[in-house]
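Second attempt. The first submission of Thiamine-phosphate synthase had a stray character pasted in from the spreadsheet, which I only caught after the job came back as garbage. Lesson logged: always re-copy from the clean sequence file. Corrected sequence (221 aa) follows.
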Amino acid sequence: MNRAALAHRLTLHVLTDREWSRGRDTVTVARAALEGGATVIQLRDKLASTRELIEQGQALRELTRAYNALLIVNDRVDVAVAVDADGAHVGQDDMPAPLARQILGPQRILGVSAGTLDEALGAIKDGADYLGVGPIFATRGKLDAGPAIGAKLISTLAARFPTPLVAIGGLTATNAPEIIRAGAAGIAVITAVVAADDITAATRELLTTIQAAKQSPQAHP
Ligand SMILES: Cc1ncc(COP(=O)(O)OP(=O)(O)O)c(N)n1
Ligand SMILES: Cc1nc(C(=O)O)sc1CCOP(=O)(O)O
Ligand SMILES: [Mg+2]
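This time the job returned cleanly.
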């Protein structure tokens, strides 16, 4: 997939998280988000056994194909390959990106987290297909995320590099537009979607807001 196509498909990335799902199972949450227009489902379950993760991954693989959405597996590059996901996402404490790339091969998508310019430069050098940049705002979704960094890193990176940027951390329909205008290709959320009363409606609202921001004249060139 070329960069422009990938950037388009990264518009709205929903991370599963059973701790925030209010008793709803991962497949139910993902289906509702896909119905609302999520373009990526990231399987992120810090509690699951490997066997459970594989089962969830296989179910999400089928579902994401039916909705023409991407499936990314968080942390577990081996599981990403085993369930034939589109890719994997690794952070700064996870498998190093060059090893993840070896396992994923050249075709699958490799996402890497970056919270600083140095981390971003390293991830780009290591061949990340997209960067997960955050935490942009204060977040409830990741306890060890560190302090909010705001939009500056997004605008700096967008001005200098073509690698698509996915903003994460405290994103909502209210604050997403300014981050898209700063140059993010898309946003990633946990609580704004998976903890919502109506997951489909929350996803739809986010998607509409992001699409409008992408088309606004103030959008990043
Ligand atoms: C799109 C996206 N961006 C950042 C992250 C965070 O990854 P990481 O730092 O490894 O933290 P955990 O998600 O593993 O807790 C992400 N998952 N997705
Ligand atoms: C999983 C994750 N990674 C982050 C990072 O900054 O890398 S912030 C985060 C949690 C995002 O949850 P919410 O959308 O509810 O704020
Ligand atoms: Mg991780």
